[in-house]
């Protein structure tokens, strides 16, 4: 029995990398009976007589997983947001951040197309850059034509598994192309499909870039909060999470409760009003969602 990691899933086969070798495997029949699907990124135990014939015997516990793209055990997500075309959207950025934080994935914020803003307009973008950096996030601001530089992003990929997320049109596919030139045709196809609002059935693969692994498909097709409970939302806002122990009431939702350390921090300017407003908006969404049975 050998251990390895699934780096590609295609047509019922799972390609498992172990050491310097890749083994083509099938899943055990018991997985289907138990409604378990091996995912790209899974650490597995497998048995193989040769590189073309193997069977996955067990899947190790996952630290996280995404539905689309179907990848597990992700270390970081590069959230691509644009300064222009489409305009910078802090509400959407916070939505991505909450989704990623809820999966215990480290975010890196990449703001693209800074050259499409004039100097006065760029001040607003720099304001948000400083705001998110003050929270503790890594924020990179790059020009539309500087993806090959990627704000030094290549160095952040080493020894990590990364996915790229962000709204349509911000440059996710261009970024993937710049990081790995062999992906050009693939990512153009994905970009076109997503631009039309259609889903692609193309397989997902972890490709080696910069000493790490990167999912070759842009991620996060849905941004609802179905998996987040009301009392879990504050944990997805680092600046709220670190202050909530100071609230008078245990289980404070930082909304209407008195003597709330979070609301006090907002009043004192220690938590950005925009971030707190988004927290309240997301909390309301979670309370308003229909129960699923």
UniProtKB/TrEMBL annotation:
Give a GO biological-process term. Answer: ribosomal small subunit biogenesis
Q: Which residues bind GTP?
A: 112-115, 166-174
Specify the EngC GTPase domain's residue ranges: 72-221
Nucleotide-binding is among the record's keywords: yes
Task: Tell me the cofactor note.
Answer: Binds 1 zinc ion per subunit.
One Gene Ontology molecular-function label: GTP binding
The name this protein carries in UniProt is Small ribosomal subunit biogenesis GTPase RsgA
The species is Lentibacillus amyloliquefaciens
């Amino acid at each position: 029995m050998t251990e390895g990691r699934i780096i590609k899933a295609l047509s019922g086969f799972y390609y498992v990398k172990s050491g310097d070798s890749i083994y083509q495997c099938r899943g055990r029949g018991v997985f289907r009976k138990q409604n378990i699907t091996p995912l790209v990124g899974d650490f597995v135990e497998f048995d193989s007589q040769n590189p073309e014939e193997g069977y996955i015997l067990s899947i190790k516990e996952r630290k996280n997983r995404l539905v689309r793209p179907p990848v597990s055990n992700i270390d970081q997500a590069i959230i691509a947001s644009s300064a222009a075309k489409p305009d910078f959207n802090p509400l959407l950025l916070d939505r991505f951040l909450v989704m990623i934080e809820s999966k215990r994935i480290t975010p890196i914020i990449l703001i693209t197309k800074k050259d499409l803003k004039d100097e006065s307009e760029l001040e607003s973008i720099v304001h948000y850059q400083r705001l998110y950096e003050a929270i503790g996030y890594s924020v990179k601001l790059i020009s539309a034509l500087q993806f090959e530089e990627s704000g030094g992003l290549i160095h952040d990929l080493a020894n990590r598994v990364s996915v790229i997320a962000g709204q349509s049109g911000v440059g996710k596919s261009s970024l993937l192309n710049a990081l790995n030139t062999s992906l050009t045709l693939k990512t153009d196809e994905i970009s076109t499909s997503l631009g039309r609002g259609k889903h692609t059935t193309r397989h997902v693969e972890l490709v080696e870039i910069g000493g790490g692994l990167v999912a070759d498909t842009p991620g996060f097709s849905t941004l609802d909060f179905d998996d987040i409970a009301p009392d879990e939302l504050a944990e997805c806002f680092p600046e709220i999470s670190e202050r909530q122990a100071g609230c008078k009431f245990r289980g404070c939702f930082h909304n209407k409760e008195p003597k709330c350390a979070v609301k006090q921090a907002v009043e004192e300017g220690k938590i950005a009003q925009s971030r707190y407003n988004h927290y309240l908006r997301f909390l309301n969404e979670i309370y308003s969602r229909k129960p699923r049975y």
